[in-house]
Amino acid sequence: MAAGSTRLRRNPVLWTALVSATLFAAPMAANAACPLELAVYGDRDDAAWIDFRPTGESAVVTNSFKMVLDKGVVLDGIVMWSEGVKRPYASLMYQCPEGDVTGEEIAACTLWEGVVYTADASGKVDLIPAEGKAAPPMLIFPDLGPTLRMSAAYGENGFSKLPWDVFALKGCQE
After folding, report:
1. pLDDT per position as a tens digit, 98-120
2. Residue 52 and residue 26 share a domain
3. Which of 109, 135, 150, 153 is most buried by a 10 A CB count?
4. Are both 4 and 84 inside the same structural domain?
């Protein structure tokens, strides 16, 4: 055994610091470096996952994502910032028609709408950033579960597990 490893074992402070750095620093650094457009989030009950995607050249949409629920149900999500009082206003849609659609058609396939908040480990709440920024540790979709329960996509022919309103950062896509 090398002399350096013997010194570490005999010094509990150094050993504890090394183990802590090995176990905790790498995952935190990986998540902290993850841009929001590649972030993956999950709710506490594993009822839903959120995979962010690069938005592209949209002048209006600042974030794009998919929410994956049980039974293969996938909701399309977008975030757009409102005019006036700036807020990141998100929509979750299910099986919307493509192409030239009316406002009524979009409203009919929209299952949830609202402001998306973030929270850090200390409990500080903020608004979701646009692409290019670091992925926040937590996302909050107020009243998500109760609203989705009232949707046509929930139930016998749709998803059966309702997600919690809070999603934690689980990883980063490559």
Report:
1. 888 889 999 999 999 999 999 99
2. no
3. 135
4. no
